[in-house]
Amino acid sequence: MALTLAIDLGTTNLKVGLINEKGGILSLASEGIVTESREPGEAEHDPEAIMQLIFQLCKKVLQDENKSDVRFIISSTYHFGLMMLDEQRKPLTGMTLLSDTRSQSTFSDFAERFSGADLYQKTGCPLISQYILPRLYYFSKEKRALLDRAKYFHDSKSFLFERLTGEWVTDISTAAATQLFNAHDLKWDREILSSVHLSSEQFPVPADGTKYQAPLKKQILESLGLSGDVQVILGVYDGAVLGFGLSGLRENVGLVNIGTTAMLRVPGRNPVFDKNENKRIQAYALDTKVFLNGGALNNAALPLDWMKNNLFNVDLQDPLLLQLTGEPPLMALPYLTGERDSKTGPFASGVFFGVRRYHRQTDFVRSVLEGVAYSMRYLYDALKENDLSVEEIRMGGGGVNINAWPQIFADVLGVPVNIPPTKEIALVGNALLAFTAGAVFANYEEAAALMLKGGKTIEPDNSRVKVRNDHYAFYKKLREQLGPLFQEHSSLRF
After folding, report:
1. Domain boundaries, the chain
2. pTM
3. Residue 17 belongs to what H/E stretch?
4. CA angle, 209 as apex, 295 and 161 as ends, to 5°?
5. Pairing mode, if any, of strands 70-76 and 231-233?
6. Cα distance between residue 173 and residue 241, in whole Å
7. Which of 84, 292, 328, 426 could bond to 92 as cystine, CB 3.0-4.6 Å?
8. What's the CATH number of domain 248-490, 3.30.300.20, 3.40.50.150, 3.40.1280.10, 3.30.420.40?
9. pLDDT tens digits, one per residue of 109-123
């Protein structure tokens, strides 16, 4: 039986698993990743530390009795990574993360500079500060000498694939979230690149991550104790791989992931651009035939961690987290690191609204859980308003382990929420993709039938749905009316 060594490189954790053709996880290892911050707003990974950790965890999960069965290695990696290399291809920087906020300081200038260019219609990426284009703009304004030294640019996918195979390639789904990649011809957009005095030759070659593969370097093969023809499948970004692990990438299935960040996306054959001026939908190509249309939040479990580390202990399994009273609700806009829509997002910050003397710790925790769900409802409504059919919701990520959260989502969205049987959706999704790319399975449907079984369904509580709808209507108004104040507040610097 063929095995896949699956690597999931996230912004806060690294996981490696050994997966068989039935979706079974034979062994698993994980480790937290250190985020480096040497100046205000900076958040980067040390690329060498990442590679050492990957090899350490790979060796940990590999056993002598199964090494000869490993046929594929595949990775899922995060969006928004940017690492600059000099002319000798030596790193000038670490790998930036979603939580790197330095580009917010120049975002007003960036938005004015590109106000006449319809970046959204060309790339599917609205005007937000986390994309690679505004990050490059920040470096051009604040660290010009460093940018001038940069001759090549890595993202998290191309960096890892080059280290494993020697090839300088990235996958389409990772390139799609740079704001440098044309959503229509699936190539680096030369006009956008030239606007920041760069060329496509300075970026890795985009390829279909669901098919592209190359042999593992011989020295790595030997170092891991593997043998035979081990192929490295390029793979897709970490959010996209959940589509494989949750549903086998079925159309019209809403894919929700709740972790440090959160997402809601629907697979489809074409890019969908939001007709609303808020540009709530991001149209990301997954491969040459499938787009993941939807949106994401920077802040899901992240504000819960912040609360635990800075305010008070958080009991995430308290049954009172599902409690609704007749009092006006405490509401949280949990936007600690900004958000991803073009109006509220770039300048957004955290807000607790409606605080009263009787509110306790549980009320604050509940308001964050609800705030994330209401924010996802904002995206859910955007999909429906743009004629995207969502027949069911499938949810994965660490957030499903908080008992109240899937129920809150079901009540807020008003639809059943399916929870998969395994917690390691990304690893299983990676393996499903690898086995299909490697012709072990003929297609995703065949792979999903064998690898994705079981799970449970959370039904909405009809007695709560109307209350949630009323609360959401106020939440939406609050979020939109605070938009201009977020921007005004962000300018109060000295």
Report:
1. 3-236, 248-490
2. 0.89
3. strand 13-20
4. 110
5. parallel
6. 10
7. 84
8. 3.30.420.40
9. 999 999 877 899 999
